[in-house]
Amino acid sequence: MSIGAQRVMTLRTKKSKRTSGVDSPNTSRQTQRIPMPHNSVFVLGPETNMQWLHGVRADKRPIQQKSEAERSFGGERISLTFRQIGTFTDRNNRKIWGQGARKKTKSTAGWVRASDSAEMEAMVIAFGKENHQSEYDWQAEYGKGFDVINLVTNKKSKLVLCRDKIANLRVQLSLLEKRISYDIEEKSEESEKSDERRNPRHRSRAWSHGLSNIEKPIFQDTDEEALETEGDLAILFYLERCYPYETSKEPGPQDVNRTSTQQFSRAAQSNELLFAWQNLPSHSQESRSRSSASPDRPTSSHGMAIAELERDLTMWEGYAKESHRFITGDDWTLIDCAFWPVLNGIVHHWTGFKVQRYPELSAYHERVLNRESIQKLLEEEE
Questions:
Q1: Average pLDDT of 78-100?
Q2: Which run of H or of E encompasses 263?
Q3: In whole angstroms, how large is the CA radius of gyration of the chain?
Q4: Which DSSP string corresponds to 95-115?
Q5: CA gap 68, 22 in Å, rounded
Q6: Any idea which of 78-82, 204-208, 239-243, 275-279 has the lowest mean pLDDT?
Q7: What confidence tens digit (pLDDT) does each residue in 149-188 have?
Q8: Angstrom distance (rounded) from CA 309 to CA 288
Q9: CB neighbourhood size of 42 (10 A)
Q10: Which is nearest to 269 in space by CA: 206, 327, 199, 330?
Q11: How far apart are the C-alpha atoms of 221 and 229, rounded to whole Å?
């Protein structure tokens, strides 16, 4: 709707794939100019929007060359645009659903991906194609939806690394797989001293799943209201809540409950495997000096330690055999981020790991090793 001084709406046909780059009288683009006086309405339908570009250009002509309608209201104009909204967010811009989002209903709304630069770029590319191609396939470009609402973000999440390489790898792997931009900060000397004061080594500590919180990475999201999240598994579960992984099929209510239970259970089991490996006499002293394993948890004899590690690996071998591709099925999940760094450490540092004994785990390890996120992290280590 145009209110005030008259302006001209200019329409121009988009370039088609057949005529793109071709300049001849037979393929020239058409132009239409439609005067819009005071209180006029221009209705743009989907077919016209697909074939034509539209806009009101700035009128830089001298005032003497303008008509009376163009000079009315002091030459000022107000433009009101009415659109049919099909995509929605909650009042805090944290949840998103609808036609243009990945989740189509409010009951299944997904989390806004505030730091997903890759998805922002994909949406910008889709906009560009829509604006310049008349044979635009809306379903192919927009059908899956986007869970970003801002096209540009200068703010990145913050990750403070610790001395535990496996804890760091777990979190960094999850961030890369979820395409979340982040800056790395080293833990300050003052912060490390504060950790020692809170957790002096001579003090008895309760331990859970073989690990305590002596060494822990810290994650700060881009949301100003978000608190710091401490600890590798705590960060993994926070990221899964706010930026859940895509799945190959839409989960039902029972699937969601089953998945949550499995995630908590397997995450605990991945830590038990980590402790079993670090509990080996040949490995425990070195690993405890740079890891989050609690020295207060009772250790086992050499034979018992190996038996415990082999028992846990056999259990995970069964999981890998059932899952075929990733550790819990066809989709990459939080558990892959929790488990693979532990398996990688065992594969490279325990001579007892044999391909013949653990063929499924060996194949799984190699598949994940070739993922882009892993390759990037390994390159950064070098």
A1: 85
A2: helix 253-278
A3: 29
A4: EEEETTSSS-SGGGPEEP-TT
A5: 41
A6: 204-208
A7: 766 555 678 999 998 899 999 999 999 998 888 888 876 6
A8: 17
A9: 14
A10: 327
A11: 9
Q: For all residues of the chain together, what is the average pLDDT?
A: 80
Instruction: Kindly state the tokens that stand for 231.
Output: 């600890």
Rounded to the nearest 5 degrees, what angle is found at the Cα of 152, between the Cα atoms of 151 and 155?
A: 135
In the predicted model, is pLDDT for residue 131 greater than 70?
Answer: yes
**Would you tell me the crossing angle of helices 253-278 and 334-349 to the nearest 10 degrees?**
20
Cβ atoms of 26 and 94 within 8 Å: the answer is no
Q: Which run of H or E residues covers position 53?
A: strand 52-56
Distance CA 319, CA 269 (A): 12
Which amino acid does the sequence have at 60?
K
Phi, psi of 290 (to 5 degrees): -135, 20
Q: At what angle do helices 334-349 and 359-369 cross, to 10 degrees?
A: 110
Pairwise CA distance, residues 181 & 121, whole Å: 13
State the SS3 of 264-313.
HHHHHHHHHHHHHHHCCHHHHHHHHCCCCECCCCCCCCHHHHHHHHHHHH
The CA distance from 97 to 167, in Å, is 33
User: Per-residue DSSP letters for 139-201?
Assistant: HHHHTT------S-----EEEEE-S-HHHHHHHHHHHHHTT--EEEEEPPHHHHHHHHHHS-T
Handedness of CA 258, 261, 267, 271 (dihedral sign): negative
Q: Read off the DSSP letter of residue 17.
A: T
- Higher pLDDT pick, 171 / 197: 171
DSSP label of 26: G
Find all residues with CB under 8 Å of 94, minimum gap 6, and list them: 111, 112, 223, 242
